[in-house]
What we know:
Blueprint: H1 2-21, E1 25-27, H2 32-49, H3 51-57, H4 59-64, H5 69-88, E2 93-95, H6 98-119
Amino acid sequence: MLRFVARWGVTAAAVAVAAWLVPGIYVEEPHRIWAIVIAALVLGLINAFIRPVIYGLSCGLIVLTLGLFTLVINGFMLWLASWIETEWLGLHFHVDGFWNAVLGALIISVVSVILSLFVGKKVK
């Protein structure tokens, strides 16, 4: 359970950094913190359930592009999380456009890897 909460916090921090750096990703003010926390949860659920199916279906394209198509898939997952949160949940986490989604996904990936280096240490 603690690992899940730590991973959720890392993803939330990475989403916040992406919203801060990319002009096309923004969170409207009334529920800014909640929108980021829920966006991290929705993104985690999408990555757990939908992303493996997409990876399986596009395996040939990923190999053909030497892995660069994963950036497109990650951007699509971020855009999908934005759409679910805005349309279904009524919170205000927006990703405007494909390239903003790809850049945001790249930033989220890099920040997550960096933060996971500090959080992911197991105590023996």
